[in-house]
Design a protein that fits this description.
single chain, 438 residues, alpha+beta, 3-hydroxy-3-methylglutaryl-coenzyme A Reductase, Chain A, domain 2, four-stranded antiparallel sheet, 48% helix, binds (R)-mevalonate, hydroxymethylglutaryl-CoA reductase (NADPH) activity
Length: 438
């Protein structure tokens, strides 16, 4: 059967669900009832969520967890995290507590500049285009005044606009490369609005630029869009302590521990196959806070990985050294985040999460997010270089296995008891349940 349909978006929510149920399920009623089960009983709240996107049929839950005890620059934070992977929040909380007793996280925002570009084709003499750009530059600012007025009041705005010649890489390709300060907003709408106005100004002014030939006047704007590669919107998070202070129950020999740990980071510096997984571990923490605070995790992901390969090879975003008996572990990452605008004032749980974080500025949020990323990376490397990750991971995952087998409360107690001293795996838990169910 063909599943093509025209006018899907014009169907009501219930009609959409019914259409899907009929098309894809042998028991349509069951599918309909499952989808509806996830509707919020508060109609207003449901409507709010429905209107976030097009063609909403229901909600898709992810857990919201809490990692307490993050000491960042001497301030204590309780961090909300949205993630489905079972061990991530526990690992973040464990690292946070570990480092809170060893001086906490030290973070600094290195810069907060955002970037946007108007990509265009100009067929003509470069020197004339340069003259045109220099003459027109003030107009780019003037004609975006209605857009930039409020941002300027908040201390932000357009920082600079330059003309880039890209013709060596693509015939007749030039760009307006603009930099922005967007204060507490992520700035995507602001930047894109400015860029689209730059593009209009560019085309319009070219028409009346006397020394342009007819062909030169015909600038073709290909597109105007912000860049998610925010190379000058960087935050750094660091932990450090004398090696012997790393000692605790599970780290009996701190020197041995730390040397292996540093080697693990060095491997991620030179081996891309490892670096990607290493950075994925960092992003476990970063994305979870980015999501919880209503920010765009795809933008953060894209920028972070591009930054990891900025020197031509994909490398670890974190670094570790031992110098004069001091272990130092740090992370540098581009993070374009907002604490106003977008979802931050719309999604009730995002608002709640920002309150838990005591309404941070975007700069403060950058630092919290980076600290969580570093904590997550510390937890992963600590497990990987000691007992391996499966023990902790499976301990957290055991509930998922029990749920899958619809284990009763009594069975859960027996499983918990048995697996105190036995290795947890999907097969071993399933096998044990089968055994006790005989
Ligand atoms: C799993 O989600 C993340 C890790 O693979 C990260 C790492 O290997 O560093 C544990």
């Amino acid at each position: 059967m063909s599943h093509e349909i025209s006018g899907f978006s014009k169907l009501s929510k219930v009609e959409k669900i019914e259409w899907i149920a009929k098309q894809y399920f042998s028991q349509p009623e069951e599918a309909i009832s499952l989808v509806k089960n996830y509707w919020n009983t508060d109609e207003k709240l449901q409507q709010l969520h429905d209107e976030f996107i097009e063609n909403t049929i229901s909600n898709f839950y992810l857990p919201l967890g809490i990692a307490p005890n993050f000491n960042i620059n001497g301030k204590n934070y309780t961090v909300p995290m949205v993630i489905e992977e079972s061990s991530v929040v526990a690992a973040a909380a464990k690292s946070a507590k570990f480092w809170s007793k060893r001086g906490g996280f030290k973070t600094t925002v290195l810069n907060t500049e955002k970037i946007g570009q108007v990509h265009f084709i100009y067929k003509g003499e470069k020197s004339k285009l340069v003259d045109f750009f220099n003459q027109t530059k003030p107009k780019f600012y003037q004609e975006t005044e209605s857009i930039t007025k409020n941002m300027q009041k908040r201390g932000g705005g357009i920082l600079d606009i330059i003309l880039n010649d890209k013709t060596a890489e693509l015939e007749n390709y030039y760009q307006l490369h603009a930099t922005f300060e967007t204060k507490d907003s992520m700035g995507a709408n602001f930047i894109n609005s400015c860029l689209e106005q730059f593009a209009k100004t560019l085309k319009q002014e070219a028409q009346s630029f006397q020394i342009f030939s007819e062909e030169e006047k015909n600038i073709e704007v290909v597109m105007s869009i912000l860049s998610n590669y925010v190379t000058n919107c960087i935050v750094r998070a660091e932990v450090s302590c004398p090696i012997e202070e790393l000692a605790e129950k599970q780290i009996e020999n701190p020197k041995e521990f730390v040397e292996k740990f540093v080697r693990a980071v060095q491997i991620a510096q030179i081996e891309p196959y490892r670096a990607v997984t290493h950075n994925k571990g960092i992003m476990n923490g970063i994305d979870a806070v980015v999501l919880a605070t209503g920010n765009d995790f795809r933008a953060v992901e894209a920028g972070a990985h591009a930054y990891a390969s900025r020197n031509g090879k994909y490398r670890s975003l974190s670094h570790a050294t031992i110098e004069n008996g001091i272990f130092k572990f740090w992370l540098e990452i581009p993070l374009a985040l907002g604490t106003v605008g977008g979802l931050t004032s719309l999604h009730p749980l995002v608002k709640l999460n920002l309150e838990i974080l005591e309404k941070p500025s975007a700069r403060e949020l950058m630092q919290i997010v980076a600290a969580v990323g570093l904590a997550q990376n510390f937890a992963a490397l600590r497990s990987l270089t000691t007992k391996g990750i499966q023990e902790g991971h499976m301990k957290m995952h055991i509930n998922n296995i029990l749920n899958q087998y619809h284990a009763t409360a009594e069975e859960r107690i027996k499983v918990a008891e048995y697996f105190k001293d036995n290795t947890i795996s999907h097969a071993s838990v399933a096998g044990f349940l089968e055994e006790i169910r005989k």
